[in-house]
Design brief:
Structural class: alpha/beta
Number of domains: 2
CATH topology of the largest domain: Rossmann fold
Distance between the termini: 37 Å
Bound molecules: 5-S-methyl-1-O-phosphono-5-thio-D-ribulose
Radius of gyration: 20 Å
Number of helices: 12
CATH class of the largest domain: Alpha Beta
């Protein structure tokens, strides 16, 4: 995706120094464009936990690169000592954020690759290759999600005789949440690039405002018309025929089709159902949880500090500042995600095509996952 006309991914290995991983610092967007240098697992763990990098796919890719740094810094005296060290670093990374399943998926993929290698040098090489593969695959799968999802937007555009297609999205399941393209945004970019008239309603997504600060920013960089709305507006827009389709991302989707996504997604799905607005969720296969049947009961929901609810960050007189929006002493609760039951979801847009949010539909696209 382009930033001020230059192509970027969200994470990559430093061009001149293979010991340094670089990533876009999402904590300071949209007011500042800053690149982070990461050289240790502790720095990577902090970047994930404090959400300097965030979004399911990017968390997975960052964990992949984090495991590469773990391999670079592990003791080389024996295969056993090396593996013991990278396994411990993997546990550290997995403990940073609980909901996005891409995190543990990437750590385990890295460990499997290293365990299969014969000696320490080959294990480091395997970690390097796997980290790049996870990132490349993420970008390619998101591109394919765009190719499949754009058909939905083309159909709506045809039905509306070429009038503007209005999409509503929640949080940021865009390019910034992955390595490139994004999931919910990939069909939008593909449609825009094909000349389809499109407009996106962007939920601000309190408390961290990923919609207002990240989705709006990246849509703007690509030139896609959009409007930021407060989180409670979607139902009203749907009642008045101003939303043709909802597309969100997901941090974890069960093999039965229940979708964990940023807090507030469930309410949008209920409103969409009540107004017969199609509700789609876009995801790469790395976001499926093949062990979990009941999303509401079983998916771990991250709870973050109440300070994120009590304070809002923004630009004031050219300076990024934080302001208190609650009474000084009011406590706040901060649930990061909710689960939308499969029955409210029209379909899942994956890198292999679109399927119903049912066990049968999902296994139909991923038969190798058995049953
Ligand atoms: O807490 P975040 O910003 O890491 O949450 C992730 C999200 O942006 C959303 O839940 C998104 O819709 C799914 S991640 C692609």
């Amino acid at each position: 995706m382009n930033v001020h006309g230059k192509h970027y991914r969200t994470i990559w290995i430093h061009e001149d120094d293979p010991h340094v991983v670089q990533a876009i610092d999402q904590q300071v967007l949209p007011h500042e464009f800053k690149i982070l240098d990461l050289t240790t697992v502790d720095e990577v763990a902090h970047a994930i936990k404090a959400m300097l990098v965030r979004g399911a796919g990017l968390i997975g890719a960052t964990a992949g690169y984090g495991m590469y740094l773990a391999a670079l810094n592990a003791p080389r005296r024996s295969r056993e000592a090396f593996l013991e060290s990278v396994r411990a670093e993997g546990e550290k990374l997995k403990a940073t954020r609980p909901t996005a399943i891409n995190l543990e998926w990437a750590v385990h993929r890295q460990l499997r690759g290293m365990e299969a290698a014969a000696d320490v040098e080959s294990m480091i090489e395997a970690a390097f290759q796997t980290a790049n593969l996870i990132a490349d695959e993420d970008a390619e799968f998101c591109r394919r999600i765009g190719e499949h999802g754009v058909r939905l937007l083309e159909d709506i555009s045809r039905r509306k005789n070429g009038e503007t297609v209005n999409v509503l999205t929640h949080c940021n399941a865009g390019w910034l949440a992955f390595v490139d393209y994004g999931t919910a945004t990939a069909p939008i970019y593909a449609a825009f690039d094909r000349g389809i008239k499109i407009h996106v309603w962007v939920d601000e997504t309190r408390p961290r405002n990923q919609g207002a600060s990240l989705t709006a920013w990246e849509l703007g960089q690509h030139g896609v018309p959009h409007t930021v709305i407060a989180d409670n507006v979607g139902g009203h827009l749907m009642q008045h025929g101003l939303v043709d389709i909802v597309i969100t991302g997901t941090d974890r989707t069960t093999y039965t089709g229940d979708v964990a996504n940023k807090i507030g997604t469930y309410l949008k799905a209920l409103a969409a159902k009540d107004n017969q607005v199609p509700f789609y969720v876009a995801l790469p296969s790395s976001s499926f949880d093949w062990q979990t049947r009941d999303g509401v009961k079983e998916i771990p929901i991250e709870e973050r500090g109440g300070e994120e609810v009590r304070y809002i960050r923004g630009l004031h007189n050219g300076q990024v500042v934080e302001v208190l929006v609650t009474p000084q002493d009011s406590p706040a609760a901060n649930y990061g995600f909710d689960v939308t039951p499969a029955r409210l979801i029209t379909g899942l847009i994956t890198e292999r095509g679109i399927c119903p949010a049912t066990e049968e539909g999902i296994r139909g696209l991923y038969p190798e996952q058995g049953g």
